[in-house]
Amino acid sequence: MPGVPLGDAVQRELDLLKRMERDLRGMGAVWALVSEVGVVAEGGQSGGQRAVLPLPKSMRERARAIRFARGELVVGVPDQSTKFAIDRWLRSGAERAMGVAEGSRISRVKVVISRER
Asked: Which residues form the domain of 92?
């Protein structure tokens, strides 16, 4: 970036990283709340409400929020069987519940196999 002091560019990048970290921490809290407590979600076509059960503890321990960008929360899991189980749980209404949680900007939850811990 010609003509821009290096210090300003570095500060902008640091500010961006801090904002991304804050967003991920906040969305991770929404993930934790819905997965640990469960929620009451709208019933979809039939109307009404229905309970979304909490994610079993064995699954919660194997999954974690790893990235949040543009409304998409990415959750990392260690293997395909955990990914399948969490995908089913999300389709049962948990993903919708996360999207309407107070202060949430989650529009989509993507589960990926990740070796990060």
From this structure: 6-113
- As separate numbers, helices (DSSP H) first and strands (DSSP E) second, the chain gives 4, 5
Residues in the chain: 117
pLDDT at 37: 62
d(CA 61, CA 104): 22
Q: How many CB atoms lie within 10 A of CB 7?
A: 8
Checking DSSP bridges between strand 39-42 and strand 49-52, what pairing results, if any? antiparallel
How far apart are the C-alpha atoms of 42 and 53, rounded to whole Å?
Answer: 13
pLDDT at 24 over 80: no
pTM: 0.65
Tell whether the model's pLDDT for residue 43 goes beyond 70. Answer: no
82 part of a folded domain: yes
How many domains in the chain? Answer: 1
107 part of a folded domain: yes
Tokens of 44: 């979809």
Grouping H, G, I as helix, E, B as strand and the rest as coil, residue 60 is helix
